[in-house]
Amino acid sequence: MLKVNNLHQYYGGSHILRNVSLKAEIGKITVLLGRNGVGKTTLLKSLMGLVPIRSGSIEWQGRDIARSTPYERARAGIGYVPQGREIFARLTVEENLRMGLAYSPAGTKIPAELYELFPVLQQMLHRRGGDLSGGQQQQLAIARALAPGPRMLILDEPTEGIQPSIIKDIGRVIRMLANRGDMAIVLCEQYYDFAEELADHYVVMERGEVIASGPGSEMQEKGIQRLVAI
Ligand SMILES: Nc1ncnc2c1ncn2[C@@H]1O[C@H](COP(=O)(O)OP(=O)(O)OP(=O)(O)O)[C@@H](O)[C@H]1O
After folding, report:
1. Rounded to the nearest whole angstrom, what is the distance from the C-alpha of residue 50 to the centroid of ligand 1?
2. Helix, strand or coil for residue 173?
3. Which of the residues in the chain have pLDDT under 70?
4. How far, in Å, CA of 193 to CA of 206, rounded?
5. Which end of the chain is more exposed for a tag (fewer CB within 10 A), N or C?
6. What is the pTM of this model?
7. 2-228: what fold?
8. Closest residue by CA, ligand 1 atom 26
9. What is d(CA 16, CA 218) in angstroms, rounded to the nearest whole number?
10. Could you tell me if the CB of 45 is within 6 A of ligand 1?
11. b or e along 182-193 (b: 16 or more beta carbons within 10 Å of the residue's beta carbon)?
12. What is the ipTM of this complex?
């Protein structure tokens, strides 16, 4: 279980995250929503240790990891799929997947399961990452994060700029991973319908603060879409 308590973060003098608290349970999908620029990516980067926080705690599996390096967090079982995918364009699909295993306690063999989740990656194993379509790159980025067998998967806008058929495939994989019951999923998403469909829990941010949260099944009756409509 992830427990974030009273997180504050600054970029220079700009107070970006304001007293943010949230939880993400194993076996559940926690969806983070909010308009552009409210601090969602900054929150996810803070969870991964990619930006320092000013104060607050980030507890993962009972341990405060708020001061741990990204490397230590990866070793602690946290996987991260960044916004914009950040795959290595000049490396092959296979090499990209191996990069996901660079610090893995699970060994250096690419798990065959990744190709079951995303069959296209097996077909394209020797293609360069940069030659893949946006949707294929997104699948590669997710597979790379899954390669070391994380217990928490953080995804930053996986549907951004991706064609509908691949969005459906990605949604199915995310649901399947959660249903296995051994992984917490934190999903930041602008595409409201996708978010609502997947959410077990939702968290809405505005100007760096959490302004609403609850079970995914209540998103419609609570009018959450209005809070995040652009
Ligand atoms: N490296 C940085 N240095 C200074 N300010 C930053 C930096 N990165 C983001 N910001 C600012 O922090 C605020 C929150 O940005 P963030 O990217 O976390 O928002 P977001 O909710 O993820 O938005 P989006 O949906 O557009 O990605 C914005 O005002 C942004 O301009």
Report:
1. 13
2. helix
3. 106
4. 19
5. C
6. 0.95
7. Rossmann fold (3.40.50)
8. 36
9. 28
10. no
11. ebbbbbbbbbbe
12. 0.94
**What is residue 104's predicted lDDT score, i.e. its pLDDT?**
75
Residue 81 CA to residue 158 CA, distance in Å, equals 8
Say how many residues make up the chain: 230
**Domain boundaries defined on the chain:** 2-228
Structure tokens given for 5: 């308590």
Contacts of 118 (CB under 8 A, 6+ apart): 139, 140, 142, 143, 169, 173
Cβ within 8 Å of residue 188, ≥6 positions away: 31, 32, 33, 40, 41, 43, 44, 83, 155, 156, 157
Q: Quick: pLDDT tens for 67-103.
A: 999 999 999 999 999 998 999 999 999 999 999 998 7
Could you give the C-alpha distances from 116 to 76, 86, 139, in angstroms and in order?
A: 25, 22, 12
Nearest to 7 by CA among 179, 208, 171, 149: 208
203 contacts 31 by C-beta, under 8 angstroms? yes
The H or E element that residue 9 is part of is strand 2-11
Q: What is the DSSP-derived secondary structure letter of residue 38?
A: S
Ligand 1 pocket check for 38: Cβ under 6 Å? yes
Using CA atoms, how far apart are residues 228 and 226, in angstroms rounded to an integer?
5
* 47 CB near ligand 1 (under 6 Å): no
The candidate with the shortest Cα–Cα distance to 211, out of 55, 83, 32, 52, is: 32
List the structure tokens of 116: 């079951």
